[in-house]
TrEMBL record:
Lineage: Bacteria, Bacillati, Bacillota, Bacilli, Bacillales
Pfam family, one: HbpS-like
Annotated protein name in UniProt: Uncharacterized conserved protein GlcG, DUF336 family
Ranges in a coiled coil: none
Native organism: Fictibacillus solisalsi
UniProt cross-references to InterPro entries, sorted A to Z: GlcG_carb_metab_protein, PduO/GlcC-like, PduO/GlcC-like_sf
């Protein structure tokens, strides 16, 4: 797959929503393309309003840094090499889990960002979305 489109991400988002329902947590799932541009945001009923921006910024951060947002937590901790980077880019950089790159072949073609649960729940749902790309 060379490019993500709305039609390709809809089933991925549905997979994420099913996982969020299994966990019993309303979430927001956002997918961006390889340039960090929004393709789709899906807000489940009763998901936290703050999760809309967080999910977008998790996806954007994952594309911008070419890695899961959870991987940034350690390198951005107080006293570490990238401490304070979360204040750059107008505060868009998210340094906790829930953002995962979407890879086709060896190329990052986008990312998913999930927010609404605990960090581990957000990661679990994001992984379900990413796994759906493999199945697509």
């Amino acid at each position: 797959m060379e490019k993500l489109t709305l039609s390709t991400v809809k089933p991925m988002i549905e997979q994420g929503e099913r996982k969020a329902q299994e966990l019993g947590v309303p979430m927001v799932i956002t997918i961006v393309d390889g340039g960090g541009n929004l393709i789709a945001t899906h807000r489940m009923d009763d998901a936290l309003l703050v999760s809309v921006d967080l999910s977008l910024n998790k996806a954007w951060t994952s594309v911008a840094f070419k890695q899961p947002t959870a991987a940034l937590a350690n390198t951005c901790a107080n006293g570490r090499e990238l401490f304070g980077i979360n204040t750059s880019n107008s505060g868009r950089v998210i340094i906790f889990g829930g953002g995962i790159p979407l890879v086709s072949g060896n190329e990052i073609i986008g990312a998913v960002g999930v927010s609404g649960g605990t960090v581990s729940q957000d990661i679990e749902v994001a992984e379900a979305v990413a796994d759906a790309l493999v199945m697509a």
